[in-house]
Amino acid sequence: MRTKAKVEMMFLAGEWVRSDETFDVYDPQDDRHLAVVPSGEDQHLKRALSKAKEVHEKSDNFPTHERIRVLQEVANYMEARVNTYAETIASEGSKTITEATKEVKRAIETIRISAEEARRINGETISFDQHQGSENRIGYQYRFPIGIIGAITPFNDPLNLVCHKVGPALAAGNPIIVKPASTTPLSALLLAEAFLHAQLPKGYLSVIPGSGRTIGNGLVTHPDVTMISFTGGLDAGEHIIREAGLKKVNMELGSNSPVIVLNDSDIDEAATSCVSGAFSAVGQNCIGVQRIYVENGKYFPFLNKLIEKAAELRVGNKMDEKTDVGPMINEEEAKRVETWVQEAISKGAKIQIGGRRNGTFYEPTILTGVPRDAQVAKEEVFGPVVIVEPVDSLQEAVQYSNDVNYGLHAGIFTSNIDKAFYAIQHLHVGGVMVNDSSDYRIDAMPFGGVKGSGLGREGVRSAIEAMTEPKVISFNLKQF
């Protein structure tokens, strides 16, 4: 049912702008009508690009100290409004209010780290006299802003993942145009409010909601866009690679993350960590735990403990602070997860707990006996489902862990340092979390994967490096 909702405007090069074309945003929990949002058109993208190009060509007007000031003020503005940001995240998306509050605090930290790293974009001197005949030359390299960044962001972290693109881009001195997920655009627009308050120079930031076909493809293919920063699905990522042309592409494409639990581990700690890693954010998390390989000696004790802890989770109203698991982003996604689980069951898998859907809600689900050709075993489920399998050895667990076309994060629980390092050396992933689930991450660390999990690394410092280019300077002193 359509109810009274807020009418939003897009943030176009520092100004709020309306559009004749709009779309509606609904709360996935109860289909409550939240907002009418402008849908960007070609004219809006062209205007944003024109303004971004203009300020990039005059980048001396945005010195480092001013970038730091803006980012610090944005963080302070957000910190004073944590509840507003959290309620927006929880209302338009899947997160519980508790999870949304944590996301806001992480987003604030991401912006603050960006401010700190802005002062550390350093170069280095070069010893030109290492080459015979260059004794009279001295020089250095420094990093300069790469140009206009096109950012395409997903629904599952609608604030912090936007901050992970906007913060580093501005810290490096680049203008950036954001196309947020159409299911969750309100958090990105609320972030733009903070930058307007901080008096970010006009042209450096645009947030344009709209279709991927118009705004997304426009950013990907436009020659004035120097780099695309994308977080989303593998199919969309492959499309971007084909269409982008000669520009930088940084992308995180999700995963099917494994966790290994060995006989010498603390199974209570491992089960607690894996339940959180598998079912937080309703499993709609790129580094969420999807497969758990347990050494035979601890398989049944671990499985029983995992089921026990999963049974304690409260599924329900995401605005209730006592709720652990809310709805998925829409009923279509919940039905897809249901279909994948049913396919696994038809091939011999067993449900240990969960497995039921009610509208957009899907219960936390633990499966055993899942064949490796099932969708839920080989692809990214992006829902509250985890597989548990026994293995004979660490080597077998590593082999199974690597047997998918993804490699973002993995976890291993062990008290043996040699076994930990075996996993570190042999797991084909971008990050190995020892005695944590795959779901562990801080916003300052490099973040990314291999194979179908993407290209490049996020994390503030890594993103800044990707969003800048080195320029080499050489002085021939004979002329002075």
From TrEMBL:
Residues 16-473 form the Aldehyde dehydrogenase domain. It comes from the Bacteria. Keywords: Oxidoreductase. Its EC number is 1.2.1.9. GO terms for molecular function: glyceraldehyde-3-phosphate dehydrogenase (NADP+) (non-phosphorylating) activity; lactaldehyde dehydrogenase (NAD+) activity. Pfam families: Aldedh. It is an enzyme of class 1 (oxidoreductase). Belongs to the aldehyde dehydrogenase family. This is Glyceraldehyde-3-phosphate dehydrogenase (NADP+). It comes from Texcoconibacillus texcoconensis.
